[in-house]
Amino acid sequence: MAIAEQDVVNESYEPTEKDERVLNALKDGREQREPWGRANPRWLIDETGLSKSNVEFCLRSLTDAGWVQRVARGCYELVDDPRENND
Fold it and tell me: Residue 75: helix, strand or coil by DSSP?
């Protein structure tokens, strides 16, 4: 079964401090032109220092807001951070 793509990014979503840590981990490497934007929960746990349940909660919240999407089982991808579009 294919994962449906999120149609709309919720621009009014206010990420928590923990969400920010997950977002920053997903964005890490883009300034150095290294691979970035996709990760599995285990890598996010290691990168953020958050617990498994906190990472899973953040991924659910960010997915519901349309900022992150699940592209495969255990693989999440940054879709958009609408705050960056306002600069």
Answer: strand
How many angstroms separate the CA atoms of 25 and 31, rounded? 13
Cα three-residue angle 75-36-9, rounded to 5 degrees:
70
Task: Confirm if 67 and 23 have CB atoms less than 8 A apart.
Answer: yes
pLDDT digits (tens, 9 = 90+) for 41-50: 999 999 999 9
Amino acid at 52: K
Alpha carbon distances (Å) from 50 to 2, 10, 20, 35, 53: 29, 24, 11, 22, 8
This prediction has a pTM of 0.85
pLDDT beneath 70: ranges in the chain = 1-7, 86-87
d(CA 87, CA 84): 6
